[in-house]
Amino acid sequence: MARVTIQFPDTFIYETDLIVRVSDLNYGNHVGNDNILTLMQEARTLYYRSRGFESEVKLEGPIGQIVADAAIVYKSESFLGDLLKIQIAVSDLHKYGFDLFYRITQRNTDKEVAVGKTGIVCFDYDKRKMVSMPASILAKLFPK
Questions:
Q1: Where are the beta strands (DSSP E) in 75-142?
Q2: For the residues 120-140, what does the mean pLDDT come to?
Q3: What's the angle, vertex CA 22, arms to CA 105 and CA 108, rounded to 5?
Q4: What mean pLDDT is predicted for residues 41-65?
Q5: For the purposes of burial, counting CB atoms within 10 Å of the CB of 24, is it exposed (0-12), middle (13-18) or buried (19 or more)?
Q6: What is the distance, to the nearest Å, from the Cα of residue 90 to the centroid of all Cα atoms in its chain?
Q7: pTM over cut 0.85
Q8: What pLDDT sits at residue 55?
Q9: Average of pLDDT values for 82-92?
Q10: Which parts of the chain fold into alpha helices (H)?
């Protein structure tokens, strides 16, 4: 069986901590696989807010962003109350968007919990279609 592999860029652009909540747990009493994607979304939202955006849906006028694809590789369990460090990196900038990479580790032990990637594209919420990424959004998200 072929396994998903995720190759990280060299530099992380953002880091935040999140605590595992009871709502993140599944029947195995550890963070559920679906909730890893939710933790990635929470970290991405915090990154966007740190760059001055209200949310990824409201970047500039009707232009926002959507997740076009996602991949996650699970490394170890995480439990209620664990403090997770989530680091974000960016790569593959193109006309319509970019890829964001996530490294989730236990803050106290640096043990990897999961790694992930989301493909992000710009979306015009009025026209309901993908659009080119405005330079102004690119400059705010990834200043040089």
A1: 83-91, 97-106, 112-124, 129-130
A2: 95
A3: 25
A4: 94
A5: buried
A6: 10
A7: yes
A8: 86
A9: 97
A10: 33-50, 135-141
* Averaged pLDDT of the chain: 95
3 state SS of 21:
coil
Using CA atoms, how far apart are residues 46 and 30, in angstroms rounded to an integer? 24
How would you classify the pairing of strands 83-91 and 14-19?
antiparallel
- Residue for token pair 């559920």: 32
Contact yes or no for 24/77 (Cβ under 8 A): no
Amino acid in position 82: D
64 Cβ neighbours under 8 A, 6+ residues apart = 55, 56, 57, 58, 122, 123, 125
Give the separation between CA 13 and CA 34, rounded to whole angstroms.
Answer: 24
Neighbours of 50 (CB within 10 A): 11
Which helix or strand (DSSP H or E) is residue 18 part of? strand 14-19
Distance from C-alpha of 133 to C-alpha of 12, rounded to nearest angstrom = 21
List of domains in the chain: 14-141 (3.10.129.10)
CA of residue 114 relative to chain centroid, distance? 12
